[in-house]
């Protein structure tokens, strides 16, 4: 396993910010006779600055596994990952501290990102305004609705203006207006040079994506110009894999 | 912003917003101290046992009360937010910093719990050296808080981990104490987490003194626990964990 933060080359006008080469991952069992499950068997992917990339695939195909490996929260068995710049990660399930308020959550994760108090407050105000959750800033996370919790989950990934944004079905629970606002934000970020990588299940999103990768049989296929066999279904509640 | 300070504050906020924690910390000492006292009051005095059974029971109840609360707090601190912790590490928190915030919070809350236990003990029996008694109760609590954290890091399941901590604390307090029912205990009991803190506490309560050897042993015990919990927590925060695919 190898992970580096070395800058990679420029393709056309866009710099490659994330690259995974020949990634392999097998989930093993801790029990002696347990089954091991190979998920990735040589996946290659690269993401460039300023593009919105969709990752699609059947349930259990390895989309979330691939994303976690690219983010750096899951080890891979074989292959290399190169990352340039900062990464923001929005996991599918909000991984937050239930008993903290939204403001305290910003403070805690902002400290993790190395932000100053002023930067954290500014990011909190900006994102609360954009995603419309200002009135919940003093609510505890466990008192929020699913949609508002997801807004906070997304905001934590965005608050430090990352160079690469990795989103695992970030709109789960969003109402229609928030969903549209989210896409505007994603487009603005991409226009500013942020690479946005998103696990997606919605066929309506196809036109918003610059490139589409399908995870199938442990490999990553560029299906930007083809119909995918399984991805991009009308399945807004796409089952967690 | 200082990650350590922000982390400790967040841990404390989480703790006080869990009402059961606060109730347990305040109510359990009364119940346990008096319960142990009355349980032992019915036993005969033994020539080899220092103190009358009622007082000895209350003393053991106090040390058990601190240990069990601190141990369970340590366990819960490590288990309750394991996945969120991994995300926090991804943002830039070093696992050691995160662990330091947890242990500092545990130590702080344990001192408060020890204070409550000390207060109850002071009201119910004559205490020769109150400051030492408080300090040794806190020390016993910190040992168990770190032990609970270690159990939580190794066995990240609330039910099973709680069973381990509760069973260990009960057995420990019983065998480490001078109960007439456990007079002939094997030599290895002196390596139990509460054995030397209990010796320190008993001397401080009845004689107003303590043995430096016991204190050094407890210090060493804490150091070993610290090394172990740091190693295990660091390993669990590494990225090879069992995330779902």
Which key features would you list for this structure?
heterodimer; A: alpha/beta; Rossmann fold; 6-stranded mixed beta sheet; 11 strands; globular; B: mainly alpha; 9 helices; elongated; ABC-type transporter activity (chain B); membrane (chain B); transmembrane helix (chain B); ABC-2 type transporter transmembrane domain-containing protein (chain B); ABC2_TM (chain B)
Distance between the termini of chain A: 23 Å
Q: Which sheet architecture does the biggest sheet of chain A show?
A: 6 strands, mixed
H/I helix tally of chain A: 5
Q: Strand order within the widest sheet of chain A? A: 7-8-9-5-10-11
Topology-level CATH name of the domain at 1-85 and 203-226 in chain A: Rossmann fold
Overall average pLDDT of chain A? 87
From the spread of the alpha carbons, the general shape of chain A counts as globular
- The poorly predicted ranges of chain B are 240-245
Helix and strand pattern of chain A: EEEEEHEEHHHEHEEE
Question: In the CATH hierarchy, what is the architecture of the domain at 1-85 and 203-226 in chain A at level 2?
Answer: 3-Layer(aba) Sandwich
């Amino acid at each position: 396993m190898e992970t580096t933060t070395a800058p990679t080359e420029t393709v056309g006008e866009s710099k490659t910010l994330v690259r995974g080469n020949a990634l392999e991952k097998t989930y093993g069992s801790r029990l002696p006779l347990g089954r091991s499950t190979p998920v990735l068997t040589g996946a290659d992917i690269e993401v460039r600055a300023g593009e919105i990339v969709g990752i699609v695939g059947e349930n259990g195909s390895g989309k979330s596994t691939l994303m976690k490996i690219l983010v750096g929260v899951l080890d891979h068995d074989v292959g290399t990952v190169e990352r340039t710049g900062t990464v923001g990660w929005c996991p599918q399930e909000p991984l937050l501290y239930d008993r903290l308020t939204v403001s305290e959550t910003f403070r805690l994760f902002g400290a993790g990102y190395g932000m100053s108090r002023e930067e954290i407050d500014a990011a909190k105000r900006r994102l609360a305004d954009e995603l419309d959750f200002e009135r919940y800033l003093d609510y505890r996370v466990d008192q929020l609705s699913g949609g508002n919790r997801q807004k906070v989950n997304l905001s934590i990934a965005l608050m430090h203006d990352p160079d690469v944004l990795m989103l695992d079905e970030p709109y789960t629970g969003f109402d229609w207006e928030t969903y549209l606002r989210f896409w505007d934000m994603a487009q603005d970020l991409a226009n500013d040079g942020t690479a946005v990588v998103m696990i997606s299940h919605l066929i309506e999103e196809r036109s918003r994506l610059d490139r589409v990768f399908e995870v199938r049989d442990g490999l990553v296929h560029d299906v930007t110009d083809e119909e995918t066999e399984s991805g991009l279904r009308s399945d807004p509640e796409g089952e967690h894999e | 912003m200082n990650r350590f300070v922000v982390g400790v504050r967040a841990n404390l906020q989480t703790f006080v917003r869990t009402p059961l924690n606060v109730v347990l910390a305040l109510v359990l000492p009364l119940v346990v101290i008096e319960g142990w006292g009355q349980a032992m009051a019915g036993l005969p005095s033994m020539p080899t046992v220092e103190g009358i059974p009622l007082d000895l029971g209350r003393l053991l109840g106090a040390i058990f009360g601190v240990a069990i609360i601190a141990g369970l707090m340590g366990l819960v601190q490590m288990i309750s937010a394991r996945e969120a912790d991994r995300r926090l590490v991804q943002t830039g928190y070093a696992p050691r910093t995160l662990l330091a915030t947890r242990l500092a919070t545990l130590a702080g809350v344990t001192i408060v719990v020890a204070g409550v236990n000390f207060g109850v003990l002071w009201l119910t029996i004559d205490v020769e050296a109150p400051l030492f008694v408080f300090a040794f109760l806190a020390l016993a609590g910190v040992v168990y808080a770190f032990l609970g954290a270690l159990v939580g890091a190794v066995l990240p399941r609330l039910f099973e981990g709680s069973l381990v901590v509760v069973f260990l604390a009960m057995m420990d307090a019983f065998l480490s104490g001078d109960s007439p029912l456990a007079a002939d205990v094997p030599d290895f009991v002196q390596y139990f987490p509460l054995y030397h803190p209990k010796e320190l506490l008993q001397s401080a309560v009845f004689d107003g003194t303590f043995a430096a050897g016991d204190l050094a042993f407890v210090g060493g015990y804490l150091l070993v626990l610290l090394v172990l919990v740091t190693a295990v927590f660091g390993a669990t925060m590494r990225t090879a964990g069992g995330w779902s695919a």
